[in-house]
């Protein structure tokens, strides 16, 4: 005999399961739409932030009657970076600070009315430390000293490795441990290594005894040219003409 209560229980259980399944499906759909709306709002917020930064920097620059090149020269920030910021890239701390100083405004002027996201303390400290090191290095560059360090190699071109040791000593004495000086010394290190290799290659090729002194003179003159060309570039553009993509010190 079929128990009517058992049938009623099973029927109720099936109906309840269907109800739970339907409710869960509706809940998932609702959550999906909420998440989608939040994503759209987030994207719009980001676009608004970028638009604000773009318009502020460009407006202030034009108000000061500055071109991108002139602002680059005043702030020591590359033209490409300024173009990226005016195209929507958010400037970092050091870049923002340099631009604000060049434009003679408060740093907050570039970021006014923008929501500030809270960052972990460790991240903030790390970014501040990096920015401080960058700022210290930028401020500490004395181009007169850099030029002297560069030209010091010229006096010892015929006496390697003094062409490396003397600039290295001056770097610490003059407190010019910046990227420019490191590049100057790195270039001298490369030349000091390559010079005997080229000389030995000339001997190996048996180009003749008369060619040997000519080769030595050419090797020395190549370094003289490198040093003088870099000195000229330091005077004109505050950078090196001959440099490496890496530093050896």
Task: Name the descriptors.
DNA binding; 2 domains; transmembrane; 249 residues; 434 Repressor (Amino-terminal Domain); 76% helix; single chain; elongated; Lambda_DNA-bd_dom_sf; mainly alpha; disordered N terminus
Encode the helix/strand succession as letters: HHHHHHHHHH
> Span from first to last CA?
95 Å
In the CATH hierarchy, what is the class of the largest domain? Answer: Mainly Alpha
Q: In the CATH hierarchy, what is the architecture of the largest domain at level 2?
A: Orthogonal Bundle
Reported for the largest beta sheet, the result is: none
Q: Would you give the CATH topology of the largest domain?
A: 434 Repressor (Amino-terminal Domain)
Mean pLDDT: 75
Query: What's the number of extended β-strand segments?
Result: 0
- What does the overall shape look like? elongated
Name the CATH superfamily assignment of the largest domain: lambda repressor-like DNA-binding domains
